Amino acid sequence: MRGHGYDGAINMRGSWNGLQALFLKDCSCVYYVYCFAHRLQLALTAAAEKEVSIWLFFSKLNSICNLINGYPKRHGELHSAQRIEVAHMIATAERDTKNMVNDGASNSIRGEASGALIEMKSFDFIFILHLMHKIMGITNLLCRALQEKSLDILSAMDCVSTTKTSLRTLREEGFDLLLSHVKEVCVKYDIEIPHMEAHYKSGTDRSCQHNDSITVEHHYRFDVFTAAIDFQIEELNNRFKDDAVELLKLSCVLESKENFKLLNVDHIYRLAEKFYYLDFDSQYLHHLIMQLDHYRLDVAGHESFQNL
């Protein structure tokens, strides 16, 4: 069995002039396997970029993270504010107003913090934050499975399937629960909640446009919630459906652990027929299926092999 794997740069995987193409000129049965963990990363990124409000959310989130992570001193100021707030809440059961907006070390920090706070205290930001927390919570198991040093490809592919099923369940049943939780958070932090039955208005200031055909709830349910999940499922389908996936799944039948528990003669035949056709002509394939049938009947039950 032959194979080669490398990153996804075009000069590596390019089907015309990339390294993959050069290998294939020598042997058409050398198969390129693209890092599955990176496929998932690309799927998550692509899905996040397809819906404008999701893209804007991550853009704002990036600015907020840069604000906090820019200098160690800002970390100290944030931690100090958090300690004071916790102590105050314990003493009075109320929230403290001390924060970087009022107590930042400079005007620029206070200005950036004020802008970040405005973004964070919007219903749109809170809704998408919790939506992406849900989606990434579902994909996290797959993410960790694909980064295992010793990857069980069958388990990983099963995890792809269960991830898509969980996303579909969230799509069909999760909106009302998510919306309810988002409203609770908004009430807790005094964030204005839009009227769900009102006509949805996009844009700001003079560019505001009323869309009389949809409500605010329709926008969040279908244009954000459903669209984000659909894009994610679409990307998972596109990234994990190629020949490399089938090749690795079929190859698992040759795994010797647990007394060849995964042995499947039909899969071995398929592996030879589809992926290694240069080594198995029609006559050889006919012999192979006969040999595999004998193997399945003879070796599994032969007394000489029972203690292997």
Describe this structure in words.
By secondary structure, this protein is mainly alpha-helical. It has 3 domains: 1-34, no CATH class; 41-194 and 211-239, no CATH class; 242-303, no CATH class. The chain has 15 helices and 4 strands. Helix 8 runs parallel beside helix 11 (216-239) and helix 14 packs antiparallel against helix 15. The two termini are 24 Å apart.
SSE arrangement, N to C: EHHEHHHHHHHHEEHHHHH
What are the segments in which pLDDT stays under 50 over at least 5 consecutive residues? none
Task: Determine the N-to-C terminus distance.
Answer: 24 Å
Helix share bin:
55-70%
SS class: mainly alpha
Counted by DSSP, the helix tally is: 15
Q: How many strands, which pairing sense, and closed or not: the largest β-sheet? A: 2 strands, parallel
Widest sheet, order of strands: 1-2
**Which geometry do the CA atoms define?**
elongated
Number of domains: 3
Indicate the proportion of strand residues.
5-15%
Task: From the structure above, extract its key features.
single chain, about 300 residues, 3 domains, two-stranded parallel ribbon, two-stranded antiparallel ribbon, 15 helices, 4 strands, about 70% helix, about 5% strand, elongated
